[in-house]
Design a protein that fits this description.
The complex is a heterodimer. Chain A is built from twelve helices and four strands, in the order αααααβββααααβααα. Chain A is mostly helical. Chain A has a single domain, classed as ABC transporter involved in vitamin B12 uptake, BtuC, CATH 1.10.3470. In chain B, helix 8 links the parallel strand 7 and strand 8. By secondary structure, chain B is of the alpha/beta class. Chain B has twelve helices and 13 strands. Classes of the chains: A mainly alpha, B alpha/beta. The interface between A and B is large, with 51 and 57 residues.
């Protein structure tokens, strides 16, 4: 098991990604005077919350050697349904949030059943649920966009979990605290509990794990349930950070999270990866999303550049394996 | 105890599913109920129309459907509305259009996602003798005689409306600008590919450039290549006193739209910013949550204006973050599309109906010709 490491100790890959983050931050700061300001830092963090949550979850299916493509359209769908319940059915915000997470959990369970019990290839199974979730939200909510209560409304208090504005107008990105806590908890789950160990074992050698007497079906399903649960949380974070949830959007969000995880050292073929690495990878992605426009790179070039960075990250993996 | 919990959960689920059904107002449910009313109200015209919208992606279409409902009630016609999940699902929409033609309705109202892709289907409609009225978006290359009228916002004029209303507020700042102390006016456009966004974005740039030039200032346009190249009468950035900076996000998502807005609003010389649709206007509002720079007083901060509506934008206007926004009239477009189709079915001759963009502010939001268009 390549994933063994002392708790709190950093692996080489994580140190490398930290280095990339530092270099990018310095580069953007030199190239754009407006980048090195406090509001930009807040904006990078705002951008990172929903992607971080998706990445924390999707790391589990990735490590089993699978993937979960349904998280992007899923999170939009869950946020849409939650928001619809709050705005149009007048349920309390807390119930809307629970619905958002609950539906995510159910879709995760469905993904897990398709992959682990019915042996569908993960790519296909979650591509199908990606389509289902894309239609599900609009279908249940009459097809229209919905805005969760705004920060100034009393019901918008949940937004303060992610961004707190003091009486003097200073914005504090408190969401990062929740993210760090979740990263620590999920790191512990992956590295020090049976759930984590078996997730890695399934990705390393499924047959051997089964022969060792592990109920691999259960743990395999669980990996997708975790992914779905975090997609639900990501839906809440997305609704809290931005104004209106648009039906039909969300396709491609999953790639930011999966890309982040892979940059952070999760192997695309399974068996290897850390939660902290995924988190750092997401920060790289978010730095690029915010930084590239700030240095004046226009839309098309931003996408080209992001693609190249991802290739570089995967190449490092391939080269390492050959060694 | 367990049974009670189960009972509560089940009844909650029932209520929810009922509510969900009820809210599907614009969809197929209505068609079913309408065929019922049609037979009972024999005196009505009883035409049956098909309507294809771009998607139900934004609340914009909610207002359009409201207009359709109004026309249905007044004229006693039947309308079945359909649309793809996403505005970019072009193939889905073409399929829906073909299905609509198969149903042999008395007419079709179409808001095309992609104007080129629907041309073949429009030929089929022409052959089948089914009249088509385009709304929201016109189809320039439609076969002769297939599209009888177009009901659409004049987007160039609508973009110009924003510039015309923004300029008086920032006029003093613009007049005080020099090549050493430039002022910057920002615009965020959702993309550089959709015709209505292109026209609207360009309408704003051209009008703002004209007004600033009229005030004796040289203007440069920087940012997205498409809009920079499409603008005439600009000067080099070094010589300019006024800079119009155009931001376009890499993808049409709210987070990238807000990053584009933040990039422009972070600059010290920025005096105003315009978001040219609901997504980008909300991008400006989201960016402001961190920057806190928007103000209705040019001495105190950045002047903001938007386009279309939605709860966040309406709140920004009531709270004095935006001086105002431009609204199209989706309600009137939906209404006029059905009225026009009915006229066609009656054998009357029809012509294009250009719709205005209306400027609205805190004080005019409740006006009769504005309020119905300001969807949540």
């Amino acid at each position: 098991m390549a994933n063994k490491k002392a708790f709190g100790g950093l692996k080489g890959r994580e140190i490398m990604v930290l280095g990339i983050i530092a270099i990018m931050a310095i580069l953007f700061s030199i190239l754009s005077p407006t980048f090195r300001t406090y509001p930009t830092l807040v904006s990078v963090l705002d951008n990172s919350y929903y992607i971080t949550l998706m990445a924390l979850g999707v790391t589990f299916p990735l490590i089993t050697g699978g993937v979960d493509l349904s998280i992007g359209t899923g999170l939009v769908s869950y946020a849409l349904i939650g928001g619809y319940l709050i705005v149009h059915q007048n349920v309390p915000v807390a119930v809307g949030i629970l619905a958002c997470i609950g539906i995510g959990l159910l879709i995760g369970l469905f993904n897990g059943a398709l992959v682990a019990l019915m042996d569908l290839p993960p790519f296909l199974a979650t591509l199908c649920t990606c389509m289902i979730t894309r239609g599900l939200g609009p279908a249940l909510c009459g097809g229209f966009g919905v805005s969760w209560p705004s920060a100034i409304a009393e019901a918008g208090a949940f937004r303060k979990i992610f961004k707190f504005t003091t009486a003097t107008g200073t914005v504090i990105p408190v969401g990062i605290i929740s993210m760090i806590v979740l990263v620590i908890i999920m790191s512990f789950v992956l590295d020090h509990t049976r759930v984590g160990r078996y997730t890695i074992a399934i990705g390393s050698n499924k047959e051997a794990t089964r022969l060792a007497g592990v109920n691999i079906k259960f743990y395999h399903v669980l990996a997708y349930v975790i992914s779905g649960f975090f997609a639900g949380l990501a839906g809440v974070a997305y609704a809290a950070t931005y104004a209106t949830i648009y039906p039909g959007s969300g396709a491609g969000f999953e790639l930011d999270a999966i890309g982040g995880a892979i940059v952070g050292g999760v192997s695309a073929t399974g068996g290897v990866g850390t939660i902290f690495g995924s988190f750092l990878g997401v920060i790289v992605i978010c730095l690029m999303k915010v930084g590239l426009p700030f240095i004046g790179l226009q839309a098309n070039w931003q996408q080209i550049f992001t693609g190249i960075v991802l290739i570089a990250a995967v190449l490092i993996d391939v080269v390492k394996k050959k060694e | 105890m367990k049974k009670k919990v189960l009972a509560v959960l089940l009844s909650a689920a029932m209520v929810l599913s009922l509510a969900a059904c009820g809210s599907n107002g614009g969809g197929g449910d209505d068609a079913a109920s309408d065929s019922g009313t049609e037979s009972s109200e024999g005196g009505n015209k009883g035409y049956s129309f098909q309507m294809i919208v771009k998607s139900f992606q934004s609340t914009y279409w909610q207002a359009a459907i409201q207009g359709v409902e109004q026309a249905k009630a007044e004229l006693g016609v039947e309308v079945e509305a359909n649309g793809p999940a996403n505005e970019s699902d072009i193939a889905d929409q073409v399929q829906m259009l073909d299905d609509a033609i198969e149903k042999k309705p008395d007419g079709i109202a179409l808001a095309a996602c992609d104007t080129k892709s629907v041309v073949d289907s429009l030929s089929k409609a022409l052959e089948a003798g089914i009249p088509v009225v385009c709304f929201d978006t016109g189809v320039d290359e439609a076969p002769e005689g297939s599209v009888l009228a177009t009901v659409a916002t004049d987007n160039v004029a609508a973009g110009a409306v924003a510039a015309e209303n923004m300029f008086p507020v920032i006029e003093e700042k613009v007049k005080a600008a020099t090549t050493d102390a430039k002022v910057r006016i920002g615009e965020v456009n959702q993309d550089a590919t959709a015709l209505n966004i292109q026209q609207r974005g360009q309408g704003f740039i051209d009008k703002m450039l004209e007004l600033c030039t009229g005030a004796g200032k040289k203007v440069a346009v920087v940012g997205n290549e498409f809009y920079v190249n499409a603008t005439e009468g600009k000067v080099d950035e070094k010589e300019a006193e006024v800079i119009i900076e155009v931001g376009v996000p890499a993808q049409t998502t709210v987070d990238l739209a807000s990053t584009e807005a933040q990039k422009i609003m972070s600059k010290d010389d920025t005096i105003a910013i315009f978001g040219s649709n609901q997504t980008t206007a909300e991008g400006v509002i989201t960016a402001n949550q961190t920057l806190n720079k928007l103000s209705t007083d040019p001495e105190k901060g950045i002047i903001g204006a938007g386009f279309d509506a939605g709860t966040p934008q309406k709140e920004a206007i009531t709270n004095g973050q935006f001086i105002g926004s431009v609204t199209q009239s989706p309600l009137m477009m939906g209404y006029e599309a059905i009225v026009t189709l009915t006229k066609v079915a009656d054998g009357e001759s029809v012509s294009d109906i250009p719709m205005d963009g209306y400027w609205y502010t805190k004080d005019t939001m409740e006006d009769d010709n504005i309020a119905p268009n300001l969807y949540d």
